[in-house]
Amino acid sequence: MKLAIIGYGKMGGRIEEIAAKRGHEIVAVIDLHAKEKTTRLGAEIAASFDAADNLGRADAAIEFTQPDSVVGNIQELSRRRIPAVIGTTNWYNRLDEVRRVIEADGSRLLYAPNFSLGVNVFYRVVSYAAQLMDSFPEYDAGGYEIHHNEKKESPSGTAKTIAEKIIAAMERKKTPVWDALDRPPLPEELHFASLRVGAEPGAHAVYFDSAADTIEIKHTARNRDGFALGAVRCAEWLAGKEDADVERDVQPRRVFTIDDFLEDM
What we know:
Layout: E1 2-6, H1 10-21, E2 25-30, E3 45-46, E4 60-63, H2 67-79, E5 84-86, H3 95-105, E6 109-111, H4 117-133, E7 140-147, H5 157-169, E8 175-177, E9 189-196, E10 203-209, E11 214-220, H6 225-239, H7 241-247, E12 255-257, H8 258-264
Parallel strand pairs: 1-2, 1-4, 2-3, 4-5, 5-6, 6-12, 7-9, 8-9
Antiparallel strand pairs: 7-10, 10-11
């Protein structure tokens, strides 16, 4: 597979190395700060889409940038009908707009708040645990997330997804609270805290706590390799998705999440 990388930060570098190990060719790297960076594999680095001469060769693109630029990047990739895997978070309030663009262009897109396979299994464990604990009002629920001190958004997209899954599974929890509390939380509030420190690649924990004991469910990333591998595997799947739909004689879908990839696997 020929792959384009949009955004060459810490994740972009890991994606480049893991894609190469899986036998893929990096044909273009696009980054607004390209002059400050080098690539170990000799791929083209461009500061804009127009400067990326090799972009049209890409079978798929993986995008990890910033919330203020991701929608524009999706539009550029969609216009070129390059299947796009989107790892940037905190843009989902514009999902309906993006969906219309993808459908109109006949392109494909897969997005997820977290591409770690372990995290996505963690989501399912948390959902099941929350469903069980909803029957026991003695146990309150809450959580926290920790990331490195260069992460620009808080809470993380993964934390938001965890909170959504807990609230969906627990009738007595209605509203997530992300800010510091100077009062006791209301019974229907789910308090989820954030910490930014050091070089921590990512940790998320959920608590079910009573006066008698505590149940803690936690996922800790050792490095960024799990996120990068998940994104590359999703790109492999997305690049061949339309051909697979044609073979099965079904109407091609255009917008996917990592759950679609997991279910297909």
